Amino acid sequence: MQKTKETALAMFIGAIIFLALELAVYYVLSTWLVPTDPKLEEEGGTIVRSWNKVMYFTLAYIAIVVSALLIASSQVPREYRRHVMFWFYLSLPTLLVVLLLAFS
What we know:
Elements: H1 2-33, H2 38-43, H3 47-75, H4 81-103
Transmembrane segments: 12-34, 54-72, 84-103
Keywords: Membrane, Transmembrane, Transmembrane helix
């Protein structure tokens, strides 16, 4: 029974940290990369510029998530590392949602 409570607590704490990290990464990257000059948008020809922003956004997101994975997996006990990997694997499809929110 104690093991079940510890696992549930670990998942709850992991979910809070995961959501906080995702919101922070989204806010930082969207304010840093997404804004475009309105004059450039009126003139057109921003496809290449937007493509570069999407690629920079994706690379920065993956770099931040992988660094968080490395830091978290070195800090938690071995029995909780599978939870860290669960949140890492969940962050990869979340990248698509974040990209749609940032560039729509």
